[in-house]
Amino acid sequence: MIFDAIENWELYGALPAWRRAFGFLTSLDPAIAPGEYPLEGRDIYAVVFDCTTKALLETTLEAHRIYADVHLPITGPEVHARFAAAGLEEREPYDADRDAALYHHPDRFTALFTLHPGHFALYLPHEAHLSQGKTDPRPQSLRKVVVKIRADLLRS
Length: 156
Hints:
Elements: E1 2-5, H1 16-26, E2 35-40, E3 44-52, E4 61-63, E5 67-73, E6 78-84, E7 90-95, E8 100-103, E9 112-115, E10 119-123, E11 127-133, E12 141-150
Antiparallel strand pairs: 1-10, 2-3, 3-12, 4-8, 5-10, 5-12, 6-9, 6-11, 7-8
């Protein structure tokens, strides 16, 4: 996992896939419409969507096998958490079409943090993660982008 300010993205690599993903993220217009944006076909693509933040136990805890996820909130903060997938109880088995396995929330939350606009979190396939957690007692509307990068493209 990487958690950092978007302006520091170049500290983490110069691979073409990394440059393509962050080229999109750093030039993102905050008024971008929800939808899917192909950057390099299905190898690298962005999904912009609106959601409502929720209590941590109502969030989806997932891990991928094929893609790494880069999360970037656009309109407000959201709480995230990261876990080693190997230590979690599976709720739904891996679905290749969605590239996701879903997990039950653990009894204890570790690596819990708030992701604000201007900051990103990268999750690799072995890392289970949740997002869209509320930072306020009341749910808030949130627009965010997740860039999906085929993880093998991040290896030199």
